[in-house]
């Protein structure tokens, strides 16, 4: 399950549950475009007013801080002791 750190609140979020894959799409408001956001911090509507399903925590995972987790070159989070990490994954630093 790919995880990322929310740019607004710093929590751990699943890439399928928050605003991650389509973050650069033109339908997001300018102040949101390009940012990765958890379901709670992502806007409830797109720039055209269409509802997104975001704006509240989804409840599928416990909400927790990403501090201390490792970040790879794609922005995905890894636990320090995680086994099975592919050799192609390059850790670029630690989440704040």
Q: Gap between N and C termini, in Å?
A: 20 Å
Rg from alpha-carbon coordinates: 14 Å
| Low-confidence residue ranges | none
Largest sheet: 5 strands, antiparallel
Binned, the helix content reads under 10%
What does this entry look like structurally?
There is one protein chain. By secondary structure, this protein is an all-beta fold. It is 0% helix and 17% strand. The protein contains no helices and 5 strands. The chain has a 5-stranded antiparallel beta sheet, with no helix packed on it. A hairpin with a 6-residue loop joins β1 (3-5) and β2. The radius of gyration is 14 Å and the shape is globular. The relative contact order is 0.23. The mean pLDDT is 89.
Describe the structure in brief.
The protein is mostly beta strands and 96 residues long. The chain has strands at 3-5, 12-14, 70-72, 76-78, 91-94.
Present the secondary structure layout.
Blueprint: E1 3-5, E2 12-14, E3 70-72, E4 76-78, E5 91-94
Antiparallel strand pairs: 1-2, 1-4, 3-4, 3-5
Task: Name the features.
five-stranded antiparallel beta sheet, globular, 96 residues, mainly beta
């Amino acid at each position: 399950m790919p995880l990322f750190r929310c740019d607004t609140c710093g929590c751990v979020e699943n890439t399928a549950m928050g605003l991650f894959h389509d973050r650069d799409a033109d339908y997001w408001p300018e102040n949101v475009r390009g940012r990765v956001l958890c379901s709670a911090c992502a806007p409830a509507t797109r720039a055209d007013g269409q509802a997104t399903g975001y704006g509240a925590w989804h409840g599928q995972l416990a909400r927790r801080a990403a501090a201390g987790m490792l970040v790879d070159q794609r922005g995905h989070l890894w636990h320090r002791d995680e086994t099975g990490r592919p050799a192609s994954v390059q850790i670029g630093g630690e989440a704040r």
